[in-house]
Amino acid sequence: MTGRHAGRLVLGAIGLVVGLAAGSAAAFYHQAPQMTQPAQMGEASLTVDLFEWGVSLSAELKVGDQTLLVRNTGSYPHALTITGGSVVAQSGTLRGGQETTMAVKLEPGQYELYCPIPGHREAGMLTVVSLQG
Fold this sequence. Notes:
This protein has 133 residues and is an alpha+beta fold. It is built from one helix and eight strands; from the N terminus they run αββββββββ.
C-alpha cells in the first residue's frame, strides 16, 4: 500500500469513528422518557431551574395542586422527574433555554426532584424536599 492510500485509509477511519461517536451522543440524550404533558392551568406556582449540575426551586413546594414552570437554564439537555408519595411525574427532555410546565398534586411526604438523563443525577442534579400536611 502506498503512503497516499494509507493516508486515505486513516482519514476514512477517523471519519467513521467521529460519525459513530456523534450518533452515540445524540442517541444518549434522547433516551429520557417523555411522560408528563404540559400543564393547562394558569400561572406557575414556582419555577424549577435545571442546570449543570443542579436543580433549584424559586420557592418552597407545598402540599396540594402545583403548576411548575420547568426551565433548562443550562447548555446540556435536561429533564425533571419527581418521585415520592403517590406522585411520579416527568417532563420531556428540554434543550438549553427551553421550558415547559408540569401540573402535580403533592401529598405530605418526601420527594426527590432530579434529572433522569444518565449520569446527571449522580453529578448533582438532585434536590430532596419534605412536605408537611
